Amino acid sequence: MKSLFSPRNAALVLAVAAAFGLTACQAPAKKAEAPAAAAAAAAKPAASAVKQRELGFGLYEMAYVPGANALYVASADAFKDVSGGVIYRLDPATLETTGKGYTDLKNFGMAVDSSGDRFCATNTLDGGVSQVDVQSGKVLQRLMFKGKDKDGDPIGAREVLFHNNELFIGGVADPGFISVVDAKRMTLKKRIPNAGKWVTGIIYSSLTDRVYAANGGGEILVINPHTHRIEKRLSPHDGKEYLFLNLAEDSATGRLFVTDDSKAKATLVFDERSGKVIKRLDGDALGIKFNPARNEIYISQRESKKVLQLDATSYAVKNSWAFNSHPNSLLLSPDGGVLYVTLKQDFNKDNSTKGPDSVVRIALP
User: Fold this and answer.
1) Could you tell me the pLDDT band of residue 8, with boundaries at 50, 70 and 90?
2) What 3-state class would DSSP assign to 67?
3) Does residue 116 contact residue 107 with C-beta atoms inside 8 Å?
4) Which of 35, 82, 91, 361 is most buried, by CB atoms within 10 Å?
């Protein structure tokens, strides 16, 4: 088996790091004002609303468990000369560490089960997923997926969605696939094939009772969670190349938001009913979240080193927060009043980073 620190795996890590967040309108999507430009004119929020804490190396996704009053952060730790990763448990108000669990594999994506007693973390480099106890931080069960890529390395397990006692996990392969896992037994139930190049973001819609999965070929797959079949493939159909990453949904209006931080440098808004793009927001975009409590959209801009707060009706930028490193994953508190962000450092040529990554807590104005 090849070393986890091979050049190929380092490239994969950087690829997944660039991820790891309707009204029926038939008119063509109009070009919107670039969020980055609009953000410059937005009012600057009070600094006291933002708490930032340098935490550790290799931070990726987060999970909030209300029953434990805890914010969990998945960490792959350092990629140079370090094996294994860390799961941090933080106080969601102060960001102070209240627990820390060391794991033998590196952690990336996260999803909490419906009981709130467990969460799952994807082990992207090894092609697996681990089930972790919320209270103890111990790995309870693990599933390693079969299959290798053309270089003989495990196929990366990227984003994980918990739905109806099943895990939907995207495979970073070409062609990609989605693994459907029994969340209680941690056994593979089915593999959904032909999912396009690199399955990235995955979300469930209560409005349509469908799972949406984005891929690197510029498609959004519409999946029936009961039959595990791909029923439709949504695409912009505008002649441009896209590498879709993260998804969010406004179930009240049937709008689906998808980011592209690689080729198009834009956020597209799809009408779920018609499958058409009804809005395009230009500007680099990585993580994305929709907040129904406030009718707002949040976008992390890795390249611009900003997080944007947009009005979800007008798409106008209400606020922006600038940082010295790269905003990556986003997470909303259950009440919609707080936005959490992981900040990534730049990589050196030897796969080390410029320093530890950080976690940010933003009390939304």
Assistant:
1) very low
2) helix
3) no
4) 35
